[in-house]
Design a protein that fits this description.
The protein is of the alpha/beta class. It has a single domain, classed as CinA-like (Maf protein, Alpha-Beta Complex). A hairpin with a 5-residue loop joins strand 4 and strand 5. Helix 1 runs parallel beside helix 6. The radius of gyration is 16 Å and the shape is globular. The relative contact order is 0.17.
Length: 172
């Protein structure tokens, strides 16, 4: 992980851009928000979070399609994408990220322990979902999920900044 992909690096990049972040969490249960708010000055960019641990809350609070949840369950790449989009809209942020998966000890919705999806949704609808197969105990899976979603956001912030720079300078 690069030094800019942790919570401090993400918040610094958001602050420099004048943008905000909202977080939707399931399996991480608030750990992403805790990591972000452990950084002094986080309130300049971090709007808040929704911990939608129960599947019905993903629909009710984050706007995830109920038919999608009924068909595929909560551990699904499209659900992760919808959670990131939903929290971004619900909390009025420029960027939304989400985590959903199976930390264990038992499989869920036919998915094995360690199946995780992290997602990011940014301005203009830009977004990305990454599927992970993580090993270890429950705490390890949750901790690695936090690291991965922050790394994903860091990468998207960097890609977005490079695209904006190219567009502003008229180059390729």
């Amino acid at each position: 992980m690069t030094s800019g992909s942790g919570a401090a690096g993400v918040l610094r990049a958001l602050r420099e851009r004048g943008e905000t972040l909202a977080v939707a969490e399931s399996l991480t249960g608030g750990l992403v928000a805790a990591e972000l708010t452990s950084v002094p000055g986080a309130s300049q960019s971090f709007r808040g979070s929704v911990t939608a641990y129960a599947t019905p809350l993903k629909e009710r609070l984050l706007g995830v399609d109920g038919a999608l949840l009924a068909e595929r369950g909560a551990v699904d790449p499209d659900v992760a994408a919808a959670m990131a989009r939903g929290v971004r809209e619900a909390l009025g942020a420029d960027w939304g990220v989400s985590t959903t998966g199976v930390a264990g000890p038992d499989p869920q919705d036919g998915k094995p322990v360690g199946t995780v999806y992290v997602a990011v949704r940014g301005p203009g609808g830009a977004g990305k979902v990454v599927g992970l197969r993580l090993n270890g105990e429950r705490a390890d899976i949750r901790k690695e999920s936090v690291r991965c979603v922050l790394e994903l956001l860091s990468g998207e912030l960097g890609d977005n900044a490079r695209a904006q720079d190219t567009e502003q300078n008229g180059g390729n």
